[in-house]
Amino acid sequence: MTEDIELQDYDHEFTHKHLLGLADYSKEDILFVLEQAKYFREILDRPVPKVPTLRDKTIVNLFYEDSTRTRLSFELAQKRMGADVVNFSKGSSSVKKGESLKDTIRNISSMKIDMVVARHKSPGVPHFLTRCVDAAIINAGDGAHEHPTQALLDMFTMRQVYSDLRDKNIAIIGDIAHSRVVRSNIIGLSKLGANVTVCGPKTMMPAYVHELGANVSYNIDEVLDWCDIAMALRIQLERQEDGTELFPSIREYHQLFGITMKHLERYPDFTIMHPGPVNRGVEMDSEVADSERSIILSQVTNGVAVRMAILYLLSGGSRV
Ligand code: CP
Q1: Rounded-to-10 torsion of CA 168, 224, 266, 161
Q2: Does residue 8 have a pLDDT over 90?
Q3: What residue owns the CA closest to ligand 1's atom 5?
Q4: Could you tell me which residue, 244 or 63, shows the higher pLDDT?
Q5: Cβ-proximal residues to 71 (8 Å cutoff; 6+ apart), any chain
Q6: What is d(CA 25, CA 187) in angstroms, rounded to the nearest whole number?
Q7: 299: Cβ below 6 Å to ligand 1?
Q8: Complete domains list, the chain, with CATH
Q9: Does the C-beta of 188 come closer than 6 Å to ligand 1?
């Protein structure tokens, strides 16, 4: 690691080879990653935001689903750390000629890859990849299962507002049933001692919602009055069998579950987050997304630092 990064005093032995989901990470693991990320966040503000930490590593970004933030953020994190990076997109690959996931990853692995960042529409694909290749696997979103680096960057950003998340009230509003972000956030936030309430239409609330460890509300005013932070979620039409039947219209959804400027006036204290992409006028008013109460773009900036930290730790780094 570079000499000019001061040592930090949060001591923990990080032993993971992969990041498949936050369900596998302890509270101490999560806090350790978030503490490491502070140092990488500081690097991003330097005139030359680069460290040579991964200069001997080769990483493939294996994206079978569309992405803007996660993919660019990982690629930027890898390049900021000097890794050799190759990008795979399903649409321009031999998957279109019938090649299986297993054959694809084994062929890529034969090119001497150290780490794989994988996004796929099917839950469990990152776990499957660990059985196919020897490389470290990072889950960049698997169906509606988990999106662990999104939750880590969300918690990092929340800790910039509240340094300690214990007993903080976090509302997650929107399409709960089809969201991997909500699952990873509930797991992570609960481990850090926060109270989580999910809110959305009954048709978008999973049957197992009470097993997730979150409270449930169907009233947006109730949760906005209660929460310290409100995170809105996009309606995941791509993961719905027939999304049009889950709510009568976008207009009605916005009326019942969208965050509006009136909510900001009525409840003056809560902070607004969103994992992106935002559908303006659906999950929130456009002015809400751009308001001073919104920290959505900070989430994106912090995502690079958090991903640098996890790449560093999974590549064998102990602590910065
Ligand atoms: N938050 C998130 O996963 O965004 P992308 O789909 O653009 O990567």
Answers
A1: 30
A2: no
A3: 67
A4: 63
A5: 61, 63, 87, 119, 140
A6: 9
A7: no
A8: 22-146+300-314 (3.40.50.1370), 148-295 (3.40.50.1370)
A9: no
